[in-house]
Design brief:
The chain is α/β, with parallel strands linked by helices. It folds into two domains: about 180 residues, Glucose-6-phosphate isomerase like protein, domain 1 (Rossmann fold), CATH 3.40.50.10490; about 110 residues, CBS-domain (Roll), CATH 3.10.580. Helices cover about 45% and strands about 15% of the residues. The chain is built from 14 helices and twelve strands. The strands form three sheets. A five-stranded parallel sheet has the order 2-1-3-4-5. Helix 2 packs across helix 8, helix 3 packs parallel to helix 8 and helix 9 packs across helix 10. It is elongated.
C-alpha cells in the first residue's frame, strides 16, 4: 500500500482492463496527489507570496517541455488575477530573451526534476542581476532547489501514467500549485470582479462583468396581473410573457411573483384550482435588484437564492423590468 492509499497493478495488466477503470484509477492518483499537496502548503508558500508582493515589478515564469507549458499557464493566470507576469521560455533565454528579465523582477522557475539544464542555466544570470528565485520542483535536493530563495514542493509519489513515465500527475500538481499561488496573491491584493473585468473585456465573462442590468433587462412588455386574477387567468399572461413568470402588482406596487413552478406546485397541492387566485400561489416580497449592478452580480444573487429571475426596481421600489439568469 502506498502513501496515497492506492495500489497499481503492473503495466502489463492494464490492457486487459476497461478504459473507464483505467481512467478512474488515473484520476484517483491525481486526486490523492492534490490532497497530499494541500497538506504541504505552509510557511514556504507564505514566503513565496510575501516575496512576490514585495516586488513592484513583474513575475517572470520559466520552464521547458511540459513544465514550460505549465509555466506559461501559471504566468497567464497570474496576469489575469492581478499579478503582472511574463513567460520566458528557458531554451530561448540564452538566445536573447534574458533581456526580458530585469532587476526588481521575481522569477519562478519550474522543473519537475530540478536538473533541467536550460532552467538551471538561468540561475547565474538571475543571481547576477539580483532577481530572487522561487523554485517549483519535485526534487528538494536538486540543483534548482539548492540555489532558489524559496522552494515549493511539487513532488508526486508516482505519475498516473501506468508506466510511471509520462508527466501526468506531476504536471497537474505543478499547475495546481501555480493556481493556488495566483489565488493567494489575488486575495492579498484584494483583487475584485471589477478588476477581473478590466483584464477580460472580451468574451461572455467580460461582457457580464461590464454590462449593467439596466442594459439587458426585459422592460418593454412585462407579464403583470392583479392579485385577484384567477390561476387560469394567469396562464395566458405567463405564456405571452415568455419568461415563465407573472408579476403580481396593484396600484403600481409589486406584491409578489408567480412562476411556472408555483403553478405546478399549486396543481399538485389541490384537487381543484378553479377558485385559486394569484395571491394564493404567489411568492410575496420577491427578491429585487438594482438596475445599476452588473449582470455578473445579478447571476450571483440568483444562483445563491436558487432562482432564475429577479425583478429590477429603482430606489423608490418602482418596477423597471425583469432580469433572467441567461440574459
Amino acid at each position: 500500500m502506498s502513501e496515497t492509499g492506492l495500489t497499481l497493478s503492473i503495466a502489463t495488466d492494464f490492457p486487459h482492463r476497461r478504459p473507464s477503470v483505467i481512467a478512474a484509477h488515473a484520476l484517483a492518483i491525481d486526486a490523492a496527489s492534490i490532497s497530499l499537496l494541500s497538506a504541504r502548503i505552509g510557511a514556504e508558500f507564505d514566503r513565496a507570496v510575501d516575496l512576490i508582493l514585495s516586488s513592484d515589478q513583474r513575475l517572470v515564469v520559466s520552464g521547458l517541455g511540459k513544465s514550460g507549458i505549465v509555466a506559461r499557464k501559471i504566468s497567464a493566470t497570474m496576469a489575469s488575477l492581478g499579478t503582472p507576469s511574463l513567460f520566458v521560455h528557458s531554451a530561448d533565454a540564452a538566445h536573447g530573451d534574458l533581456g526580458m528579465i530585469r532587476t526588481g523582477d521575481v522569477a519562478v522557475l519550474v522543473s519537475s526534476s530540478g536538473e533541467t539544464q536550460e532552467v538551471s542555466g538561468l540561475i547565474p544570470y538571475l543571481k547576477r542581476i539580483a532577481v530572487p528565485i522561487i523554485a517549483i520542483t519535485g526534487d528538494l535536493q536538486s540543483t534548482l532547489a539548492r540555489h532558489a530563495d524559496v522552494v515549493l514542493d511539487a513532488s508526486v509519489e508516482r505519475e498516473a501514467c501506468p508506466h510511471n513515465l509520462a508527466p501526468t500527475t506531476s504536471t497537474l500538481v505543478t499547475m495546481a500549485l501555480g493556481d493556488a499561488l495566483a489565488i493567494a496573491l489575488s486575495t492579498a491584493r484584494d483583487f475584485k470582479p471589477t478588476d477581473f473585468a478590466t483584464f477580460h473585456p472580451g468574451g461572455k465573462l467580460g461582457k457580464r462583468l461590464n454590462t449593467l442590468v439596466r442594459h439587458a433587462m426585459h422592460r418593454d412588455v412585462l407579464p403583470i396581473a392583479l392579485p385577484d386574477t384567477s390561476l387560469r387567468g394567469l396562464l395566458p399572461i405567463m405564456s405571452a410573457g415568455k419568461m415563465g413568470l407573472v408579476l403580481i402588482m396593484e396600484h403600481g406596487l409589486l406584491l409578489g411573483i408567480v412562476t411556472d413552478g408555483d403553478v405546478r406546485r399549486a396543481f399538485e397541492r389541490v384537487d381543484s384550482f378553479d377558485t385559486l387566485t394569484a395571491s394564493d400561489v404567489m411568492t410575496p416580497e420577491p427578491l429585487t435588484i438594482s438596475p445599476d449592478v452588473s449582470l455578473f452580480d445579478a447571476d450571483q444573487v440568483m444562483r445563491e437564492a436558487k432562482i432564475t429571475a429577479l425583478v429590477v426596481v429603482d430606489s423608490l421600489k418602482k418596477v423597471l423590468g425583469v432580469i433572467q439568469i441567461h440574459d
